[in-house]
Amino acid sequence: MAEAAGFDPRRLLLVGGVVVVVVFSLLFFLFRGCAPLAGGPSKSGLTVIYTNLELKDAANTIARLKELNIPYEIRDEGRAVAVPKEKADQARLGLAEKKLPAGGSVGWEIFDEARLGATDFDRRIQLIRAISGELARNIQRIKGVEDARVQVVIPETQLFAAKTSPVTAAVLLRLRSGFELAPEKILGIVHLVASSVENLQTENVTVVDESGRILTARAGLPPLKVAPTPS
Fold this sequence. Notes:
Layout: H1 9-34, E1 46-50, H2 55-67, E2 73-75, E3 80-84, H3 88-97, H4 120-140, E4 145-153, E5 167-175, H5 183-196, E6 200-209, H6 215-218
Parallel strand pairs: 5-6
Antiparallel strand pairs: 1-3, 2-3, 4-5
């Protein structure tokens, strides 16, 4: 009867099978596209809160996010961390409460724990480390700077010395790929460092990048002249 009416049962089965496959395929891709990531929302709902983290900072950041029960995703070979957009502020506040990320440098928190038996020399070294660390953190906030290291040298005061060496500072910058600091920003870094260290003059601050270029010279500042060590 079906053949007499012009219908081929095999053709009907073939068409029906194709329709079923198409429907299931559409449902599969639809649900796959809406499926969340393991432990959190889809990638479109994530925002990066920190980049260029050192491994220790990344590990401490992830541990803190776990304590806060905030989903996260590790990116850029472990150097960046992303969280849900609606949790970004909570994550930053929770990390800041633990002074994370530290940026690989130690700041004023070095004095949070009193050390028994610390000598004047120990406290002096701690002070220099704290100043250097805080300066590095502030410089890292400048647009285009990915990382910064600051080395401050404060000569010891010597009795009966006719002449003492000046206080000096060196700043090593890692800039974003293809980014060039404008001369006024370099001068800003120099004045920031000089204003933060007692008896440090701007002409005794040197700023270089990872390729070894002296950026202070490009900004029109004279090269650093280190006085000879008094005998």
